[in-house]
Amino acid sequence: MGQANTGSGIGRMVRLKKMGLRPGAADLVFVKYGKAYFLEMKRPGEKQSENQKLFQIDAVRCGAMYAVADSFELAIKILRGWKIILT
User: Which residue among 28, 40, 45, 61 has the highest number of C-beta atoms inside a 10 angstrom radius?
Assistant: First the structure.
């Protein structure tokens, strides 16, 4: 998560954008039994950008699951709830 403000992180994002990555796309994507699950990771207190909110709306409209986690523990809880992690 922290690389977005570094030179290498910016270069990586520029390359991904040139390859067609949509602004606001979630950090993590899982596909299970033909269903998509998107998980956006944030630092505590950090909010979604407008592009991330628009991506969330589109993902949910398409039938995907979408969640935002501001801690590792919450991310694990979400993934267990989605049955991505079974332990």
Answer: 40
Which domain range does residue 51 map to? 23-87
Question: pLDDT digits over 16-73, tens only?
Answer: 677 767 889 999 999 999 999 999 999 999 999 999 999 999 999 999 999 999 999 9
Q: Is the pTM of this model over 0.70?
A: yes
- The verdict on residue 27 lying in a domain is yes
Q: Return the biggest CA–CA distance within the chain.
A: 38
Number of domains composing the chain: 1
Contact (Cβ atoms closer than 8 angstroms) between residue 40 and residue 68: yes
Euclidean distance between CA atoms 33 and 17, whole angstroms: 28
Q: Which residues contact 76 (CB under 8 A, 6 or more apart)?
A: 85
12 within domain boundaries: no
